[in-house]
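Interim report to the steering committee. The following record documents the input for Fibronectin type-III domain-containing protein (117 residues).
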Amino acid sequence: MYSMADLPDPVKNCTAYNATANSLQIQCVAGFDGGIPQHFHVQIYDETSRQILYNISYRNPDFTIKRLPSDSMFIIRITAVNGQGPSKLTYKLRARTLMAPLLRTGEYNYFILAGHF
């Protein structure tokens, strides 16, 4: 006798951490996989333009999103998926990348003060 596979349970308790100017780390708690292997489908949207930047899948619920614009806010949607289909609910969170460090290029101006003080 065998048991039938089911849809996976949704991820929960997702958090963004270790933000840099161009990356975010995301960590979630996976739900029950439905009895068969699951992966995690992730969509990243720019919060201002609502434009989708990435549509990618990861094997684990802990992952790093790279090559993001700096000093930007994102909406991140995470869905567990197995061979039966996607989980019934999608986890949504907001996260921000840091401001990029200023690059100093070009000439520097030096002032020399002379005289009696």
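The chain has one domain: 12-96. The committee is asked to note this result when reviewing the revised timeline.
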